[in-house]
Amino acid sequence: MDAAFTEEQDEIRRTLRGLLHKRCGPDEVKAAVRTPRGYDEGLWRQLAQQLGLPGLAVPAAYGGVGCGPTELALACEETGRALLPSPLIATAVLAAPLILALGSEPQRNGLLPALAGGELTATLAVPGGRLATALALTGPNGGDWAGGGRAGGVQARTRGGTWRLYGEAGQVLDGHGADVLLVAAHTGGFAHSRTLIYLVRADAAGLVRTRQTAMDETRPQARIELRDVAAELLGDEDGDAVAGALAATGVGAAAAFAAEAVGAADAALARTVEYVRVREQFGRPIGSFQAVQHRLADLYVAVQAARSAASYAAWAAGGPVERRTAEPGAAGLALAQALEALRRVAGEAVQLHGGIGFTWEHEAHLYFKRAACDELLLGPVHRLRARAAEEAGLFTAEPGAAGAREAVDA
């Protein structure tokens, strides 16, 4: 792996950071999250139309930029640094890869160019708030997480040749404002049980969307209720293909979320370092005390280690199948390390800012809330690590190992 960024990648980082520095300060973030959609629509149009942000990893044949997960993760790191409220993750990281992997050619041609150009936004709706399970990040996604034929979840049936959806899904990222919903639903009953993905338009009859109250307002979530809603099947009825596509999407999503968490942790650390240089105690800046310096040094090491892991995960996700399968679980481990780093940095930022840092109005709490809510949405960290270990086969006993161990003990 070549860790150096190309000139094009450096330009993406530089341009995006400059724009967000001007348009996305703490005050602008707080104002944007209180709008009906939960983000600055003018800024989003600028990011989509001028920088092509939602189409970074979409092939040029479908109107995208034609880059890959590395460039998308690079962009997510910068949006994470600014805590940008936007539909980028929901649209470009969750929805677009599924449409590209599962959709028919007409579906791809009809949706991907509009998503890449910012004309439409989309998201993935998973029942029961089990996004991490659906993406195979905290456990295998071949089970009944979408409903399993029982009451609850989201159920799909055909009536008059049309698919109809029933049920609800909570904690749907940007679900209250997305133009297209990709809904994971269970169908087939007991005999032919499987999970499929369905397309639901925002104006569909019987669709009720309610924005949920979330501690982290920069990551808006919604509850989706489907009351006999007409839907279009994404692709065909191959349940195994859906599980595989969701797992593959999970690899890219883990890399993107990890990069975003690294950006947020880096920004929180930089703000804290800047503060301890000017905040005086006992007649000198508190940053001159060795104990404070040691704490900040430990945080710096944690952030850099998380950045390396996230970069590797994005690089591996964008390579051939051989590269992606060479080290299974790398993306989940990177996400776990990044979430843990963000949680540590955000906690220390609140502490080192002193009394003002403990007020909810202070900007340090924007990072603290992001750290707490991301782990609730995607974790917990120990489950991400356990799943990565399971994928890598670290705790799988080899044939004959038990007998050999008994012989040694004897």
TrEMBL record:
Q: Which keywords are on file for this protein?
A: FAD, Flavoprotein, Oxidoreductase
Tell me the ranges covered by the Acyl-CoA dehydrogenase/oxidase C-terminal domain, including all copies.
255-390
The protein's required cofactor(s) are namely: FAD
The record's annotation in Gene3D superfamilies points to: Acyl-CoA dehydrogenase/oxidase, N-terminal domain, Butyryl-CoA Dehydrogenase, subunit A, domain 2, Butyryl-CoA Dehydrogenase, subunit A, domain 3
Query: What Pfam families is this protein classified in?
Result: Acyl-CoA_dh_1 (PF00441), Acyl-CoA_dh_N (PF02771)
Q: Where is the Acyl-CoA dehydrogenase/oxidase N-terminal domain?
A: 6-119
Q: InterPro entries this protein is in? A: Acyl-CoA_Oxase/DH_mid-dom_sf (IPR046373), AcylCo_DH-like_C (IPR036250), AcylCo_DH/oxidase_C (IPR009075), AcylCoA_DH/ox_N (IPR013786), AcylCoA_DH/ox_N_sf (IPR037069), AcylCoA_DH/oxidase_NM_dom_sf (IPR009100)
Q: Where are the transmembrane segments?
A: none
Q: Which GO terms describe its molecular function?
A: acyl-CoA dehydrogenase activity; flavin adenine dinucleotide binding
User: In which family does this protein belong, per the annotation?
Assistant: Belongs to the acyl-CoA dehydrogenase family.
Q: What is this protein called?
A: Acyl-CoA dehydrogenase
